[in-house]
Structure formats: C-alpha cells, structure tokens
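User: Some background: our group keeps a shared notebook of sequences we're curious about, and every so often someone picks one and asks for a predicted structure to add to the entry. Today it's my turn. The entry only has the sequence so far, pasted here. Could you supply the structure so I can complete it?
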Amino acid sequence: MSQCKVLVVDDERDFLESLVRRLQRRGLDARGVDTGMEALKLVAEDPPEVVVLDVKMPDMDGIATLKAIKDRDPKVEVILLTGHASVGSGVEGVELGAFDYLIKPVKLDDLIERIRDARERGQLMRRAFS
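Assistant: Of course. Here's the predicted structure to add to the notebook entry:
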C-alpha cells in the first residue's frame, strides 16, 4: 500500500511516535499529532486518506474530533483506537461515520489491513461523488 496518507492522533506521545515510525517503515505516508485540534488543522490544510484516532484524549476527545473531521470532509476515513474498551463509544463512533473501532494494543498487521480497507472505501466514495 504505497503512499497512503495516514494521520495518527493520540495523546500518548511514545505510542504516537512509535506507531508513526512503524507505519512509515511499511510504506505509508504517516504523520502524527497529539490533539484533536491539531488533527482538524491538518485535515483542513492537507487531508489524509485515513485518520487513526484515539478515543480518550484530554480537551477534545476522539468522538468530538471524529464529528468535526466528518463535518469538514466526509470522505476522510477514520479508524477509532482506544485502550479503554467501551462498546458505547465504539457504537457511537460507527454511527457518526467511523470506518472501524479497534482496541489497543492492536497488532500492526491488523491495523494496516483496516487502513487498507478504509482507504479503498474512501477511494470508492471519492470516485462515486466526483
């Protein structure tokens, strides 16, 4: 999956940096930010194809960030990640347009497969609405 643009959003700095490096080594154009507000700024300036978004963050949580991303650009696919298994926020996220909801720790191969699937759906949507 060459050069898929992925934005990782997570307030756990070590996790964020590690995941971005691992995705880059797998050939993805990955970058990371540690707040929902920073994510919204990047989505407005240079939209990624897929956002991997932590649900539990201070200030602007993942659900609020998801809503704002979808309001700005509904074609950006979002995969929610959390270390706090919460079926309620997962269901809410999917109802708001998230592509998927995964529990940390997630295996890198599984995450990349979901990113690939999300990218494909986003490409189909962009072609359908072009």
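Suggested note for the entry: The mean pLDDT is 92. Helices lie at 13-25, 36-45, 62-72, 87-95, 108-128.
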